[in-house]
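Inputs:
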Amino acid sequence: MSQGNGTASRPDYAAIAGWVRPGSSVLDLGCGDGTLLRYLQDSRGVTGYGVEIDDANVIACVGNGVNVVQGDLERGLADFVDRSFDYVILSQTLQAVKNSERVMKEMLRVGREGIVTFPNFGYWKNRLQIASGRMPVSENLPYQWFNTPNVHLCTIADFESFCAERNIRIVERKVLTRGETVAWWPNLLGALAVYHFGNGA
Amino acid sequence: MQDSHGPGTQALPGFLFMDGSTITSSVGIVAPRVAKFSEPVALRCGAVIDEYELVYETYGTLNAEGTNAVLVCHALNASHHVAGTYADDPSAVGWWDNMIGPGKPVDTNRFFVVGVNNVGGCHGSTGPKSVNPGTGKPWGGQFPVVTVEDWVATQARLADHLGIRQFAAVMGGSLGAMQALAWTIQFPDRLRHALVIACTPNLSAQNIAFNEVARQAIITDPDFHGGDYYLHGATPTRGLRVARMVGHITYLSDDVMASKFGRQLKHGRLNYSFDTEFEIESYLRHQGNKFAEYFDANTYLRITKVLDYFDPAFEHGGDLARALAPARASFLVISFTTDWRFSPERSREIVKALLHNRRNVTYAEIDAPHGHDAFLLDDARYHRLVEAYFNRIALDVGA
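Outputs:
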């Protein structure tokens, strides 16, 4: 277990850290082994908590020196009061939750702003595999159709219309492929989407 | 500190393998010690105890800076004998021996662990069986009703006695967890971490109801004599037995009772009598009998009261976050899914209050089938979690 070596092990982590104000409070939903929280603690001095359902990950979080509350984020965030965090983060988990809409709503209840990252299903390699008649399997979607935890995959265009319909204001967006920022045709050339959003004006 | 480094512990070191894993072992032969306190203690109920003794055990070594001490608070029927065995009774294994020892989750190679029998107990500390210096007779029914807060106050004096200014951690399960929680409120600067396991912020009406049945069983036993049964050469064994049987039902889950006993018959066939027909009846009677042999009824009455009265939020209009506002410790809160006595929902109330106060808190819900008693059992996930947390404490305090 890496103990805060100060480097982002996933490309979206650096993007998230770039947006998070130093010293702010963070809730990381589906925090896994706590690597992101630890990174944000070390690099941005945040205070925060993770929410995680898996026993082994909870123990790993303790090992990583981050606070974690074991629970199922699908069942809502009843332990957290309104607007109690500066940021609520959902990193590469949106596509794996059953009720994505409810989770997004809860994020903006508990947090002033939200940050979400997900694999862009519109990425050209995914489109190509679909066009060739197969379910896409890639670096960001490393599962087969029969064992994938992903139940709500979406494209960048899908996510943005979802936000627009629900009066969710997109503050910033970063689209990445192999860790590099994608400037053109993000829904086609971007493998990973990172969004910073808040309640609409 | 005068006597704390006597030959109390003969630790057998954990054997370290090349992959970093250890063979865990027992702390070995231990011996209880007695600390005498002559400064009066004012109890919540208004009574004052002028002098008292606390029986305690220690395992491991207090480091030079005094930063590696861990206080283990006991629950209803346990004692200061937390780990190890006694030279004259090798079968008397400490009640949390699976958790505490060399290489165990609470590693006595790194931490100095203190177990203490609380005031009002029946394992050697001043309690109803002790002689009241005012009368020269056993306290009996006159021994005051104590509270979690009273216990914590006397434990703090033991800490002074042992030269411990600040505990690395105070930990306990059930009633022991209530003491850990109370420590964070009463002495916020005297502990860095609190492990609050299978706890509740207060007893529910159902919890109190079970306690009241237990108390009535004892008080209405003709051998109770208003609590002064020592003077009558009697023991309210029948009442104590029933009290324990009732308690035991609440410690186990329905599932574990079903899988352990089901409807198994004691004699292989029905006898249509009031003898034990089912295994569960036999089990409860056995538990009741065993308990009544060693436990004092007056202590049992008082400890159920300690449970009933615990409610830190009461003085704050029911606002637990306000009650916990003084706390400075970091918390590990653990509940067990099948614990219906102090359910996970009750632990979540504590977590919610701590989140509200922005305290460092980690909460884990262990999926264990055993009910309330799970906190005492050897569950791998539970023990790995506590071990990971103590690794963190070790980094924090330099243990």
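Remarks. Confidence is low (pLDDT under 50) at residues 1-15 of chain B. The radius of gyration of chain B is 21 Å.
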